[in-house]
Amino acid sequence: MKNKFSGTGVALVTPFNNDYSVDYQSLKDIVNFVIDQGVDFLVALGTTSEAPTLTNEEKRLVVKTIVDTAANRVPVVLGLGGNNTFEVLNQIKNHDFIGISAILSVVPYYNKPQQHGIFAHFDAIASVCPVPIILYNVPGRSGVNMKAETTLKLASMHENIVAVKEASGDFMQIMQIIQHKPTHFEVLSGDDAITLPLISTGAIGVISVTANALPKDFSTMVQMALNNQFEEAKALHYKILRMTELFFTDGSPAGVKALMSEAGLCSEIVRLPLVTVNEIVRKQIRDEWHRIKY
């Protein structure tokens, strides 16, 4: 049976109006766009959503907009994590999970906990969370790496920990997880540019930034790879690789929003402390868009 979180998940941006208020109409349009173009599931309030800059009420309305617009066509994963374990537990206990298929929970950031602290954090979350959990290892943002041994221990002890989004970029670590994981547990790529090679080693998909703007090409590439059509997948991989690189050249999600603005999906506005991409990168994105579009 196909895993509910296989294929392409998209870490949705939060579009803003010129006055920096949330543009809920554009968010609806983006949800419909990515679903129509073939993505397999949505992630609300992930890193790409600029969640740290949203108020609690905005977060509630963003999630409601995504869930209501998706209308059960694809699963919705909720970003729910933090570096205060007891506060995360409190959020879980008080959250309405109607329409939510799983949570994506990041390794605690800034505090730089030891491995047994990371384990205890997720062990506590797994004991109270009413929906499946996707772990999120992103040492470039959290400041600490969750080692393969910690991930595998958590997976082996908790049936409701069903996957990890691995953004360490460490192929040996990721392959160790894939090789030794329990059968209920899967690996998702957390780096768009290395999704194809990770699928070749046993990953079952990705949670993507690029799929906000290029959902058809990206999701088709992933499905081809999962179907062992690697020559066809490789052609798409290299078609969009330069654009994927540009999305992260001058900050994310500023890069992907620059293309989404060019394509008429939403404005490129981001909230401070993020700023829009510089003019050089904006031109490179525009030029690359016209190259791959025709």
Task: Give a quick set of tags describing it.
46% helix, 294 residues, 8-stranded parallel barrel, 13% strand
Count the domains.
1
Global shape: globular
- Element order, helices and strands? EHEHEHEHEHHEHEHEHHHH
Structural class call reads alpha/beta
Explain what the structure shows.
46% of the residues lie in helices and 13% in strands. The protein is an alpha/beta fold and 294 residues long. It has one domain (7-227): Alpha-Beta Barrel (TIM Barrel), CATH 3.20.20. It has helices spanning 24-36, 56-70, 85-93, 115-128, 139-142, 148-157, 171-180, 195-201, 215-226, 230-247, 254-262, 279-293; strands at 7-11, 41-44, 76-79, 102-106, 133-137, 161-166, 186-189, 205-208. The termini are far apart. The radius of gyration is 18 Å and the shape is globular. Helix 3 (85-93) runs parallel beside helix 4, helix 4 packs parallel to helix 6 (148-157) and helix 11 (254-262) packs across helix 12. Strand 2 (41-44), helix 2 and strand 3 form a beta-alpha-beta unit. The protein is built from twelve helices and eight strands. It has an eight-stranded parallel beta barrel, surrounded by six helices.
